[in-house]
Design goal:
The chain is of the alpha+beta class. 22% of the residues lie in helices and 29% in strands. It contains three helices and five strands, in the order H-E-E-E-H-H-E-E.
Length: 153
Amino acid sequence: MCSSDLSVNHTNASEQAIKNLYGQIGYIGTTVRIDPVFLESPASHVKVQVSIREGKPYWVGEVTIKGNHLTQDRVVKRLLHGILPGRRFEGPQLTKTRKSLEQGSSLFDQGGSITLLGDPNDTHRDVLIEVREKNTGSLSFGAAVDRKSTRLN
């Protein structure tokens, strides 16, 4: 690879792509580092060293939803994109769920969160989903007063 082909954006995108691939099979804690190794001969060529720490695969334990005072749990669970008890975690699905809870829903404000609970050494991790409901409805009253008055004789 030529050194002119190697950029920080390209390196970051490659690292993220590798993490996403591992995330699809449950390795949501994978870390990836790509380091250039500059060669003296041939001039301006670079070797790329890729370091991957897989971690371990995780499965979804119990899913707890908090902050939904008006919205039923089943409505929130529709936005979870495969984060169901007993299923293997998928990194891209976690990202998709975060986005749909923050942006894609007219029911919730931004500021919700997804937190993995439990010991990182366990194979099953519980999930806490916290949402902040929007004010979805309003009721207003009005009155009208007419200045003209009529006299009855």
